[in-house]
What we know:
The structure holds two protein chains of two kinds. Chain A has nine helices and nine strands. Chain A is an alpha/beta fold. Chain A has two domains: 2-85 and 162-248, Rossmann fold, CATH 3.40.50.300; 92-160, no CATH class. In chain A, strands 5-6-7-3-8-9 form a six-stranded mixed β-sheet, sandwiched between helices. Chain A has a three-stranded antiparallel β-sheet with strand order 2-1-4, covered by helices on one side. In chain A, strand 1 and strand 2 (25-37) form a beta hairpin. In chain A, helix 3 packs across helix 4 (116-129). By secondary structure, chain B is an alpha+beta fold. Helices cover 53% and strands 15% of the residues of chain B. Chain B has twelve helices and twelve strands. In chain B, the strands form three sheets. Chain B has a six-stranded antiparallel β-sheet, with helices on one face. In chain B, strands 6-11-8-9 form a four-stranded antiparallel β-sheet, with no helix packed on it. In chain B, strands 1-12 form a two-stranded antiparallel ribbon. In chain B, strand 4 (168-176) and strand 5 (182-183) form a beta hairpin. Chain B starts with a helix and ends in a 5-residue tail after the last helix. At the A-B interface, helix 2 and helix 3 of A face helix 1 and helix 4 of B. Residues 17, 26, 28, 46, 48-54, 91 of chain A line the site of adenosine-5'-triphosphate.
Amino acid sequence: MSPDKIAIKTENLTKVYKTTFSRYQVKAVDNLNLEIYEGEIFGLLGPNGSGKTTTIKILLGLLFPTSGLVRVLGKPPDEVIVKDRIGFLPEESYLYRFLNAEETLDFYGRLFRIPRKERLARIDHLIKLVGLDDARKRPVKEYSKGMARRLGFAQALINDPALIILDEPTSGLDPLVARQVKDIILDLQKQGKTIILSSHLLADAETICNRVAILHQGQLQKMGAVKELLQPGETLETLFLKTIQASRS
Amino acid sequence: MNQLFAIIILTYRESIRKRIFLIIAVFTVLLIILSAFSPVVKPIDRIRLTEAWTLQGIGFFVMLIAVFMAATSLPEDIELKRLFLLLAKPVTKEMLLLGKLLGFVLTTGLFILIMGAISLVYLYIVNWSSGHLTIRDKILPTEMRFTNKTGQDAQGYVTGNYISDKEFTVMIEGEGNNYIGWLFRLRLAEARLWRTQSAAERRRASSNINLNKSKLSEPARPTEGSFGQARAELSLMIGEGQFKVSSEALVRFVNPTTKQEYHKQITLSYKRPEAVEFPAELIDRNGELYVYVSRPEPATYIRAGPASVVLKSLGVIWLQVILLLGFCISGATFLSGGVNVVLNIFIYFVGSGTQFWASSLETMRQAMTSIIRQETLQTITQAPAHSHSPEVYPLWMMKASEFVVDSTLKVFPDFSRFNSGDTYLLNGYAVPWNVFPPLVGYVIFYGIIAFVVGAVAFRLRDIK
Ligand SMILES: Nc1ncnc2c1ncn2[C@@H]1O[C@H](COP(=O)(O)OP(=O)(O)OP(=O)(O)O)[C@@H](O)[C@H]1O
Ligand SMILES: [Mg+2]
């Protein structure tokens, strides 16, 4: 976790959503300059529609930025080699409903070209890690929201990624599992991995994130180490509210 | 390889789970079984019918499967945002497209294979119970000409099948001054000559033939004694085809009552009719005559039971499906599912009707030349302008519509090329291997174009 090793860098990143048949445009990300260091847990915070998911999609090379520059692990994000080292949990479960837990992980494992023996070992390990051992043979369509979320979390780790991007990792999870997930995230950091997460749970973000960025209407409002951003006695929640209100007026 | 394999298998698993797949499979089987209950004259006809229904049914239904599944698969992935997670993995968009394409190629191939196997099992049951061989010729006589003593022609249309290594059944339909129907049956080929006197009788006889082949065995009653002086002439001609072979054939005529025989060696050659004359007394008092046509040299016919012929025809169908799959996958990269389905059905129907388009183009061009000529004439003779008929539109309009039809014909893939399966089969031909190379080339050519278009469109696209 040192500023000299940069995992992700964006320069004047802007994304405008255009709809084909209307002149209505949304500037989802507006001149964003981010720097995320290797080995840190970075929190991407902001109210609904502030551009968190859009930023993540750009980092994954799924969206082309309207303007600006992005470097992920030193490379442009649409290069496929970069993705070998990224694990990603989307904000909702976008899994194949007819596959069961094992098949789901096997499918994504194959996409990472993980050799069979290693793949099977990892699948077994991850299923146990997220507590889906009893449901490993049941199709995803029978899963509860939280179970699907846990499987989503497991698939994000299938390739033992160096960079893990988690879009609202604890949403839909019961307090018990949410706690476990937070522990796993901290554990992953200890293994030297870089973690980016977006979250609306500011208390959680405050405890696990090293640095945070607060977005509003696509613009960066604040970025820095949690310890440095907070005044004595201030929580991340009060800072967040203050920041957003200031930006609105 | 592992990646591609994973996507192929996923696509396959996803598509066979769709209900439409099962429903269509059931329909296809029903259609094949239905052919068991349709009335036919000869057992061999049932085999032909089943083969034809199998091909038509499988061909049509697999096309539905291809369009509805392949055209909606990628849009569905985008809609359900599964693509979002998938493309966050180290998978290129081209790889995804290729995997999907191959996945559907696999799915449709399995569908065709399974349905083909079902119909073959059924065919063999029918075949076995009727004790029929299904040997067919690479080449068949498709035309027989009959001349009576006054020199009037009776044109016939011939279909037939080999029933053994040496003999084939021939059925002739046709009309002329003297209607003559030949019905060769099995080894003991039987031919009847019917002479109809009045126009009404003639009409009845021919409508018997055209409407209901089962009435062939009970035609208009021959007029007794009227054959005494008849001299029939039998012309055999090898059917059109890519086989430039000529072969010796032995035609044997037998009077069924007196057993009096007459034979003649003829050479069947490509597109050249061969006339065989035989003495009229061979026709017995009932107007019957047995004719055997045999080929002494076996090189000109092949054994082609249902298995090889049906499977080859299904192969042709599969090639056609693969071509359409290419368009479906390509369109899916920039169109919504519904629009893509409609577009591909459109492509298929326009592409299947190329002959229709070509002939309309011909008509249009002829009309235009005659109009232009007329107008030139008018300018020369200074005729008044009101002689324009109301159907004549400005020339540029006609040129525009000619251009549209012309470019449609050039741009759309020609799906009618893939009709060879049933063209051969329905006429009792064996499907030759040499239909494949040009079709494979065609599929590859259009497939690459479609794939490149799709890949470029997909690459430029935001995954929202
Ligand atoms: N596919 C899209 N087409 C058009 N506009 C979009 C699209 N996706 C997002 N937007 C717009 O972009 C803006 C940012 O959306 P985004 O999903 O990035 O927000 P978010 O910060 O992730 O919000 P949330 O906390 O609700 O997940 C919003 O105004 C949204 O309406
Ligand atoms: Mg979001």
